Amino acid sequence: ALDMRAISELISPQRAVIECFRAGVDIALMPLLLRDESSLQQLQDILSAAADAVRAGELDELQLRLSAQRILALRSAHSCAATQSAALERIGCEAHLALQQRIAEHSITLVHGVEPALVPGSLVHLLMPCEDSARALSAALLDRDASLRISWQALDDFNMERERDYIAAAATYLVAVNEPAMSAVELGGAEDLGELPDQSPATVQQWLLAKAGDRQRIVLMLGSPYRAGQFASVADSILASYDGAPAGYRGDPGPAYQALAAVLTGEVKVIGQLPVSMDGV
User: Fold this and answer.
1) Cα separation of 234 and 204, whole Å?
2) d(CA 174, CA 158)
């Protein structure tokens, strides 16, 4: 995978592909990002450079043909002969989906504080990284407890005055942190917080949690959990899911969101463990 940049950061894409083939690699995967017409031309330049290397004797044509045969044989061995719909049914069969959900539920980790619980019928306000994540968690929670009253805002369309009103009305304030994240100034809506030393999402979220001290305060670490320590003083509970993908199979909320909803509504107990040691939590 040349987009990992172990060597492609140091040499040209053409040279990186040629050196991969010289080393005996069968597939030089993702040598560049295809984003516009100029990148398509770059891809053609890479193919031409590889062909020139064969003609010049720098690359062994027989070895490339053997690579192609191995690729075709592998693809044939693992291709599904059934129709596309049958293949999709096989991929999304009940056993696979159940395993996926079990893994997600067993992964949820209580990083700090007490195991949280949402009170049925209570008003829960969500501050999420984006609209898709807000809709995913809201849908997953309501699927398990339709009595919950949920409001939400997303950092990609954030309004501070509206957020303060939401917090004032809520019994539970739930803030989701997705790392690495963009600046709140880049996302918009937090430029007026002059009292803050900086306006990164984490700083804005900490400040808001501190202001919501008389409510149940829950922090969800959706991606990396490493910044959880920053929220320990302003959160009653910090959960880690290690995954922030909102969309799951066939448009359902992602498995991490479904697992978080199951934990928050008391359907599932937290049993996950941090895979690393962290200070401050």
Assistant:
1) 12
2) 15
pLDDT at 196: 46
pLDDT at 182 over 50: no
Rounded CA separation 207/151 (Å): 19
Give the whole-angstrom CA distance, residue 46 versus residue 18.
9
- Residue 261, CB half-sphere, CA atoms under 13 Å: how many? 25
Out of 80-84, 99-103, 131-135, 205-209, least confident range: 80-84
Round to whole Å and give the CA distance between 150 and 146: 10
**Is it the case that residue 227 has pLDDT exceeding 60?**
yes
> Considering the entire predicted model, what is its pTM?
0.69
Task: Give the C-alpha separation, 206 to 229, whole Å.
Answer: 11
268: nearest Cα among 146, 103, 133: 103
Spell 196-228 as b/e; 16+ CB within 10 A means b.
eeebbbbbbbbbbbeebeebbbbbbbbbebebb
Report the phi/psi class of residue 124: left, alpha or beta, with left for phi > 0 and alpha for psi in -120 to 50.
Answer: beta
User: Mean pLDDT across the stretch 147-161?
Assistant: 92
Cβ atoms 223, 246 nearer than 8 A: no
Q: Is the pLDDT reported for residue 17 higher than 50?
A: yes
Is the pLDDT score of 273 beyond 80?
Answer: yes
Residue 280 has pLDDT above 90, yes or no: no
